[in-house]
C-alpha cells in the first residue's frame, strides 16, 4: 500500500558563498559539514555522436527525470551529430537517494560524471532546477562547460515554495492499495491528486513518478528529501565568481518565472549572457515549443 508519513516542516534556505578551496574539492568529504558533498552515481542515457565535438548534456527540472528529454535528445543527436547525455538528478528517476539536495551536491554529481564519460567540456542545458544546477556547475567549475543554456529560470529566489510544497504533501498523502491493476491505480492516484493539483498537465507530470514494483506502488522521487530541502531549492547559492563562457537564457513567453528585474544578476554572473524569449511557451519550453527549442539550441551552437 502506498502511504507516506507526516509531512515534515520545511527548513529555511541557507545560502553558501564562493567557490570551494582546491583542497576541499579534491577531498572525499569525510562527513565534515564544510567539505564538498560526496558525489552519487547518477543514472544516465548517452546517445552516440562525434567525439571531437563537445557533447550536449540535458538536465531536467524538479519532479522530472531524464525521460523528459527523450525525444529532444534524439532529435538533437540527429541534427547536430553530437553525443547527447540525459541524466536523472539525485533523488529523481533511477538515480540514488540522499538527504542532501543542495545545488552544490547536484553539481558535484556532475563533476564526477562528466569526466568519466569524456564529456568535459560540454554544452550544458538545464531546465528549472536543472538550470540552477547547470549555473552552479558553470560558476564553480567553468572548465567543464563549453557553453551554457538555462531554460526558464534565473539565479534569483523563486516564489513557488507553497505550490511545490503542496504537491509533495499531496503525493505523500496518497493511498493506493497493493495489487491494484495498474490502470486502476493510476486512475485512483489521479483522483486523489486532483484534490490539490487541479491542472491535468501538472498531475500527469507528477504521476510519471508513480511506479509499480512487484505489485507495490511507490514514488521513485524522494519526497522526504524534497520536503526537507524545498526552501533551499527555491533559492540560489550566493556565488561571487562569474562564468565567462557563452550563455543563453531561454525564457518561456507565457512564463513569469524570469522577470526583467532578474537581468542584472544574470548578467553579473554570466557577462556574455544572451536572453531570448520563446513565444507561446510556458515554463516547459522544450515541451510546449519543441521545434523552436531545438532550432534555438542548434543556432546557439554555431
TrEMBL record:
<comment type="function">
    <text>Catalyzes the hydrolysis of diacylglycerol in vitro and may function as a key regulator in lipid metabolism, namely by regulating the intracellular levels of diacylglycerol. 1,2-diacyl-sn-glycerols are the preferred substrate over 1,3-diacyl-sn-glycerols. The enzyme hydrolyzes stearate in preference to palmitate from the sn-1 position of 1,2-diacyl-sn-glycerols. Maintains the functional lipoylation of the 2-oxoglutarate dehydrogenase complex (OGDHc) through its interaction with the OGDHc by preventing the formation of lipoyl adducts.</text>
</comment>
<keyword id="KW-0378">Hydrolase</keyword>
<comment type="subunit">
    <text>Interacts with OGDH and DLST; this interaction maintains the functional lipoylation of the 2-oxoglutarate dehydrogenase complex.</text>
</comment>
<comment type="similarity">
    <text>Belongs to the AB hydrolase superfamily.</text>
</comment>
<protein>
    <recommendedName>
        <fullName>sn-1-specific diacylglycerol lipase ABHD11</fullName>
        <ecNumber>3.1.1.116</ecNumber>
    </recommendedName>
</protein>
<dbReference type="GO" id="GO:0052689">
    <property type="term" value="F:carboxylic ester hydrolase activity"/>
</dbReference>
<feature type="domain" description="AB hydrolase-1">
    <location>
        <begin position="56"/>
        <end position="290"/>
    </location>
</feature>
<dbReference type="Pfam" id="PF00561">
    <property type="entry name" value="Abhydrolase_1"/>
</dbReference>
<dbReference type="GO" id="GO:0005739">
    <property type="term" value="C:mitochondrion"/>
</dbReference>
<dbReference type="InterPro" id="IPR029058">
    <property type="entry name" value="AB_hydrolase_fold"/>
</dbReference>
<dbReference type="InterPro" id="IPR000073">
    <property type="entry name" value="AB_hydrolase_1"/>
</dbReference>
Amino acid at each position: 500500500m502506498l502511504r507516506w508519513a507526516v509531512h515534515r516542516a520545511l527548513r529555511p534556505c541557507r545560502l553558501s558563498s564562493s567557490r570551494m578551496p582546491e583542497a576541499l574539492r579534491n577531498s572525499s568529504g569525510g562527513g565534515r559539514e564544510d567539505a564538498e558533498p560526496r558525489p552519487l552515481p547518477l543514472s544516465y542515457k548517452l546517445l552516440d555522436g562525434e567525439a571531437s565535438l563537445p557533447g550536449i548534456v540535458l538536465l531536467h527540472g524538479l519532479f522530472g527525470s531524464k525521460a523528459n528529454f527523450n525525444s529532444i535528445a534524439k532529435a538533437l543527436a540527429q541534427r547536430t551529430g553530437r553525443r547527447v547525455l540525459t541524466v536523472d538528478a539525485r533523488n529523481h528517476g533511477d538515480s540514488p537517494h540522499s538527504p542532501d539536495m543542495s545545488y552544490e551536491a547536484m553539481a558535484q554529481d556532475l563533476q564526477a560524471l562528466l569526466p568519466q564519460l569524456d564529456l568535459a567540456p560540454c554544452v550544458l542545458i538545464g531546465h528549472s532546477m536543472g538550470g540552477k544546477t547547470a549555473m552552479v556547475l558553470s560558476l564553480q567549475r567553468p572548465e567543464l562547460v563549453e557553453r551554457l543554456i538555462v531554460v526558464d529560470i534565473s539565479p534569483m529566489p523563486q516564489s513557488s515554495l507553497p505550490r511545490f510544497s503542496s504537491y509533495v504533501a499531496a503525493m505523500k498523502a496518497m493511498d493506493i492499495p497493493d495489487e491494484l491493476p495498474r490502470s486502476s491505480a493510476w486512475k485512483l492516484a489521479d483522483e486523489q491528486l486532483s484534490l490539490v493539483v487541479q491542472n491535468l498537465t501538472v498531475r500527469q507530470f507528477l504521476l510519471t513518478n508513480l511506479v509499480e514494483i512487484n505489485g507495490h506502488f511507490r514514488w521513485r522521487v524522494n519526497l522526504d528529501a524534497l520536503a526537507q530541502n524545498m526552501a533551499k531549492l527555491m533559492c540560489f547559492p550566493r556565488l561571487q565568481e562569474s562564468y565567462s563562457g557563452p550563455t543563453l537564457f531561454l525564457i518561456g513567453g507565457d512564463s513569469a518565472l524570469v522577470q526583467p528585474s532578474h537581468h542584472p544578476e544574470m548578467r553579473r554572473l554570466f557577462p556574455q549572457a544572451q536572453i531570448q524569449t520563446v513565444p507561446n511557451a510556458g515554463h516547459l519550453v522544450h515541451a510546449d515549443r519543441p521545434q523552436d527549442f531545438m532550432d534555438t539550441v542548434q543556432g546557439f551552437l554555431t
